[in-house]
Known about the structure:
Blueprint: E1 2-6, H1 10-22, E2 26-30, H2 33-42, E3 47-51, H3 59-68, E4 74-79, H4 84-92, E5 97-100, H5 105-119, E6 126-129, E7 132-135, E8 140-143, E9 146-148, H6 152-163, E10 169-170, H7 171-178, H8 189-201, E11 208-211, E12 215-218
Parallel strand pairs: 1-2, 1-3, 3-4, 4-5
Antiparallel strand pairs: 6-7, 7-8, 8-9, 10-12, 11-12
Helix pairs in contact: 2-3, 6-8
The site of calcium ion has 6 residues, from loops.
Amino acid sequence: MKLLIIEDEKQVADNLKEGLEQHNYTVDIAYDGKEGQQLAREYEYDIIILDLMLPDIDGEDLCRKLRDGGNKSFILMLTAKKQLDNIITGLDCGADDYLTKPFEFSELLARIRSLLRRSSKHKSNILGASDISLDTESEEVKIGGREVQLTRKEYMILEYLLRNKGQLISRNQLLEHAWDRNVDIFTNVVDTHIKNLRKKLGKSGNIIKTIYGSGYRILDE
Ligand code: CA
């Protein structure tokens, strides 16, 4: 799943990106509100992590602008402010959740999982199809209870397909949700990773169907 961090403190933003990438998320960063707004318009992020205190625009104003512009990403606000009033305004201007700095990284991860559960029909952290299961909390993928080692990219592709089980997912959608904005969209990078993923899933890899000319689908049995 792809996240956008809008945070002007470079060190904080870079550390968050690094940490989140280690947990199988794709992350873009905007170091100011203007760039954040532009990226949020251009790409379909699953979650936007928005710092409240930005130099060029107030996080609440930016949140309102994004919502007025029809942005449907989940917005998680980060702030050093603890006052109840800020929490209320933050939520009322369109944020879905709120986290006060300093926070434990494990809490941020739990809140991200919680937001992602809201968007899909999966209300638990375990996604699955046939004998394959993917646990978004332990980040383990198992076939019939036996763990399989996937690369981060393979994990992200499988996660996205499982979250959208039954739906046709285009290569562009996979590029949009599992790669950051630096990907060269003219390569056959998606097909290569799907091929490797299927190989690692063995017989169970058959659940990933290729829809010729369109994309991929995991059947909803
Ligand atoms: Ca800030």
